[in-house]
UniProtKB/TrEMBL annotation:
Keywords: Cell cycle, Cell division, GTP-binding, Magnesium, Metal-binding, Nucleotide-binding, Septation
Cofactor(s) the protein needs: Mg(2+)
Name listed for the protein in its UniProt record: Probable GTP-binding protein EngB
Family recorded in the similarity comment: Belongs to the TRAFAC class TrmE-Era-EngA-EngB-Septin-like GTPase superfamily. EngB GTPase family.
Entry coiled-coil feature ranges: none
SUPFAM superfamilies, sorted: P-loop containing nucleoside triphosphate hydrolases (SSF52540)
NCBIfam families noted in UniProt: GTPase_YsxC, small_GTP
Organism of this sequence: Lactococcus muris
């Protein structure tokens, strides 16, 4: 997969706009501010392709990034904004749910959590949801540069335990700041495309 051969296929507001292709899709999910945009930009070797932290209240879209016509990385809006109204959150949850449960080309989800912290309730909900629907997960623990290497294993254990991590899923330790985990992330993605 050549990450430089890149285009935004569509920013979809609803299911009828999802692209009608058979290119495999890998979605990205994570709490707002987890480092999802930075992850996409790092993976795709771009500075500002995925825009960082779309603010609450803005239209929530699913962005389909076509990478080398081999995979669509599907950027799902970040969850867990405290300041968003309950109604908005529900609408947004429905959009994600609709996509994750009906997308015919969805192969796996890159689920992002912060390596520093215990997963949030929303993180746990997302992982449980994905496992309920038998969707393979590539768990990506972000911001690894903030934790000394000697403590990585401990943090990984805490995260796995909190999520009741399925041992058949992949786990990638990642940092956009020092470029840790890019190859591991691509290797994990490539097994599904
Ligand atoms: P998003 O809301 O999930 O798209 O998160 P962003 O990519 O916008 O990042 C949120 C914040 O975390 C920003 O201040 C980033 O600079 C910071 N951040 C993102 N990735 C990393 C990382 O790998 N290491 C560190 N230390 N900070 C990061």
């Amino acid at each position: 997969i050549n990450p430089n051969n890149l285009k935004l296929t569509i920013s979809a507001a609803s299911a009828k706009q999802y692209p009608d292709t058979d290119i495999p899709e890998i979605a990205l999910a994570g709490r707002s501010n987890v480092g999802k945009s930075s992850f996409i930009n790092t993976l795709l070797n771009r500075k500002n392709f995925a825009r960082t932290s779309s603010s609450p209240g803005k239209t929530q879209l699913l962005n389909f990034y076509n990478v080398d016509s081999k995979v669509h990385l599907v950027d799902v809006p970040g969850y867990g904004y405290a300041r968003v109204s309950k109604k908005e959150r529900e609408k947004f949850g429905k959009m994600i749910e609709e996509y994750l449960t009906t997308a015919p080309n969805l192969k796996a989800v890159l689920a992002l959590v912060d390596l520093r912290h215990e997963p949030s309730e929303d993180d746990k909900l997302m992982y449980t949801f994905l496992k309920f629907y038998d969707i393979p997960v590539i768990l990506v623990a972000t911001k690894a540069d903030k934790i000394p290497r000697g403590k990585w294993n401990k943090h990984v254990s805490v995260i796995k335990k909190a999520l009741q991590f399925d041992s058949t899923d992949d786990f990638v330790i990642f940092s956009s700041f020092d470029k840790t985990g890019i190859d591991e992330a691509w290797t994990a993605i490539e097994q599904y495309v």
